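Technical annex, item 7. During the second reporting period the consortium partners agreed on a shared format for inverse folding records so that results from different sites could be compared directly. Each record opens with the tokenized structure and is followed by the designed sequence. A conforming record, contributed by the partner at site C, is shown below for reference.
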């Protein structure tokens, strides 16, 4: 059966790709994702009639299990379901010991353990179940999901991102600003245990200006007036709270020396724009957001299909660069231009000298698909998303 989640506002219906019953038919899972990506909604849409759900944002449930974790089994025994959901598991890390015990002693049980932050679990050395539960991630809405619903608006997506409640909002910018305030005051202050929230807020503003760039810890530290070592810790917080990801340089090149420094992206265009207080994109902002959108699409595809592919990038010391490399088979250059010409394939052709790649792609805002004599294929972002999810390149 094909399970979907529907977000409905007026006549707008959006379906998510991730299939929780299918995941749980195989093994217990952690499901992590940033706040407001729709984890709780996904659970209630797909599992309400199939699973016993413990919502740790419910005060009664929270206090009961915090004080007496062993009572979890008494509650489970009273239910006919063998699917158990614990939403916001990071609120009671100690509960994972009881989950571990039950997975071992009650082989028919499957657990779904969700959270918006791995930071507290890591800080408290929580029991991550030693391979007894797989890890999955839920991303903001993708181009593919929005296209499937006939609801994709590129300018809106690049400006306000794909958080479901924001994309469908009548006041998306205001909702994003509220999201950032909530992130700082709840996720960071409570979960990440940051002592100086003002320093972290300055850091957030500085690194948002560097979204999609190679990380320069010293420069960001100078801009934010924070020591570079603290900047490294703050980047770790961004990753642990799932708000940003780093990708590392491709190391397979033999002909040209590559840089060794990673670059990072916020997980959503709207989040980074809101931090920068951008309500309307200029051409430079649009170029960054366009690249960020392709990053999200690739990351979500790899995560949802659970492939072994690794997402990297290529940049040489003489400033040749290709935006994304998927393992050793696909190289992707991203251009926000509406008119792609043969000159735009220059860096891909340099990279192709390595003799490794099966697919060389330019993803752009040009409405016309093209294929150059070199074999480089140029695709509008909508065509790229469609072909990606049809698994043409993987």
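Designed sequence (site C submission):
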């Amino acid at each position: 059966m094909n399970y979907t989640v529907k977000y409905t506002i007026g006549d707008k219906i959006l379906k998510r790709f991730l299939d929780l019953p299918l995941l749980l038919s195989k093994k217990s899972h952690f499901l992590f994702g940033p706040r407001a990506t729709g984890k709780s909604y996904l659970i209630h849409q797909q599992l309400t009639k199939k699973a016993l759900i413990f919502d740790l944002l419910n005060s009664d449930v929270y206090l009961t299990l915090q004080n007496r974790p062993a009572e979890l089994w008494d509650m489970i025994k009273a239910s006919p379901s063998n699917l158990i959901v614990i939403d916001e598991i990071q609120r009671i890390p100690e509960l994972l010991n009881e989950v571990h015990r039950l997975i071992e002693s009650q082989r028919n049980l499957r657990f779904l353990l969700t959270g918006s932050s791995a930071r507290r679990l890591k800080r408290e050395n929580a029991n991550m179940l030693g391979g007894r539960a797989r890890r999955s991630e839920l991303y903001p809405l993708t181009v593919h999901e929005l296209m499937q619903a006939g609801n994709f608006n590129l300018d809106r997506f690049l400006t306000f991102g794909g958080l479901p409640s924001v994309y469908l909002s009548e006041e998306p910018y205001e909702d994003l600003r509220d999201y950032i305030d909530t992130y700082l005051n709840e996720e960071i202050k409570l979960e990440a245990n940051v002592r100086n929230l003002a320093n972290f807020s300055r850091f957030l503003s500085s690194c948002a200006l560097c979204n999609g760039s190679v990380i320069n810890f010293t420069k960001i530290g100078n801009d934010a007036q924070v020591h570079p070592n603290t900047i490294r810790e703050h980047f770790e917080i961004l990753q642990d709270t799932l708000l940003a990801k780093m990708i590392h340089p491709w190391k397979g090149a033999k002909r040209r020396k590559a840089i060794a420094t990673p670059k990072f992206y916020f997980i959503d265009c709207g989040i980074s724009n809101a931090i920068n207080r951008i309500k309307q994109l200029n051409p430079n902002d649009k170029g960054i957001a366009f690249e960020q959108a392709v990053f999200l699409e690739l990351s979500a595809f790899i995560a949802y299909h659970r492939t072994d592919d690794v997402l990297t990038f290529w940049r040489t010391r003489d400033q040749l660069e290709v935006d994304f490399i998927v393992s050793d088979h696909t190289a992707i250059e991203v251009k926000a231009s509406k008119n792609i010409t043969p000159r735009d394939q220059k860096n891909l052709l340099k990279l192709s000298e390595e003799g490794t790649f099966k697919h060389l792609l330019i993803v752009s805002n040009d409405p016309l698909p093209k294929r150059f004599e070199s074999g480089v294929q140029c695709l509008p972002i909508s065509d790229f998303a469609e072909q990606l999810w049809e698994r043409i390149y993987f």
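The chain has two domains: 6-137, 143-389. Residues 1-5 have pLDDT under 50 and may be disordered. All partners now use this format for quarterly exchanges.
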